[in-house]
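Dear colleague,

Thank you for sharing your sequence with our group. We've completed the structure prediction you requested, and as agreed, I am returning the results in plain text so they can be pasted directly into your records. Please verify that the sequence below matches your submission; if there's any discrepancy, let me know and we will rerun it promptly.
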Amino acid sequence: MDNAGKTKDDAKYWPCLLRRLTDFSPEEKKEALNAGITFKQLKKDIFENIEMILNSRSHPQGAELEKYPELQNSVLNFGLPDFCGRVCSRNEREQIREHVLNQLRWFEPRLAADSVSVELRDDATAPNSVLEFQIQGRIEVGELNEEIVFISKLDLETGASILKNTQE
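Please find the predicted structure tokens below.
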């Protein structure tokens, strides 16, 4: 889509592929022409995609796909490994952090891969079964360049992740 000469609020952007392929109005017999989404909707779309990555489990695990390197970066490996019920050592927490980082770099292409960072945060008020991450990145879509920051709380007992936008 050509966004030349428009401000980021005027321009239209493409939603993620899954959103484009999803029929949100199955009762409608005629497809609406997709004119793109606004910048605000784009940020919401990125937020929801990150939330989906953090709340999805990959099966089989990356190590099981070593013989098939082309599958390691396919949707078959979308999401985090199942870590429910595990007590995480410092090393295991770092492995989860690294996995989150790699997933975001690969499966959210609207963020510049080299700009994405995931930092473990120590929250004294959080139970030991909750990992808190600060996720930062730069949206790069066409001429658009904007930083985003999210906080994720990942519950190691349930596998659920809660994502908060720190910029709202």
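Summary note from our side: The radius of gyration is 18 Å.

Kind regards,
the structure core
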